[in-house]
Amino acid sequence: MSSIEVLRDKWNKNKNDYKIKETGGGVQDFIADFFASAELFRLSKTVTKTLRFGTFVHDTESGKEGRPDFVLYLGNDVTIPVEAKCFTRIEEGVTQLRRYQLDYSKQYGILTDGNEWRFYRATSYKK
Q1: Confidence of residue 96 (pLDDT cuts 50, 70, 90)
Q2: Residue 64 has pLDDT above 70, yes or no
Q3: How far apart are CA 51 and CA 68, in angstroms?
Q4: Gap between the Cα atoms of 57 and 71, Å rounded
Q5: Which residues of 60-87 are buried (b: 16+ CB within 10 A; e: fewer)?
Q6: So what's the pLDDT on residue 98?
Q7: What DSSP element (H or E) covers 2?
Q8: DSSP character at residue 88
Q9: CA 96, CA 3: separation in Å to the nearest integer?
Q10: Residue 107 and residue 81: Cα distance in Å, rounded?
């Protein structure tokens, strides 16, 4: 689990790479560390078959269609789809996140590029 300081250092070291690389060492790896951080979300990474409270799934399958990059499991009734985009390209994920919210019948969703985090309730968000 990474501390906020470790995450800050990782971001500063790699943010230019995060503009062009989403997976395989890109911004999604940073976001996975963010979710696992004891000082932030404190979630454990898991696989779909072992879902439980306080976990997240990171879908890294290339060419996947119709699945969010991450799904957070925060309780029996709280499942949040998360779409991650390259740094500075967050707007590219708005339509995808809305589709995931509809497909998963979820009122909430998170859209991020690692730097900006948008927490959605229905179609509106808070920074």
Answers
A1: very high
A2: no
A3: 16
A4: 5
A5: eeeeeeeebbbbbbeeeeeebbbbbbbb
A6: 92
A7: none
A8: T
A9: 30
A10: 10
Alpha-carbon gap, residue 58 to 6, rounded angstroms: 21
What long-range pairs does 116-121 form, CB within 8 A, spacing at least 24? 116/90, 118/90
- Please work out, in degrees rounded to the nearest 5, the angle formed at the alpha carbon of residue 8 by the alpha carbons of 108 and 19: 70
pLDDT at residue 63 above 90? no
When comparing pLDDT for 126 and 113, which is higher? 113
Three-state DSSP state, 58: strand
What stretch of H or E contains 7? helix 4-18
DSSP string, 19-57: TT--SSSSHHHHHHHHHH-TTTT-PEEE-GGG--TTEEE
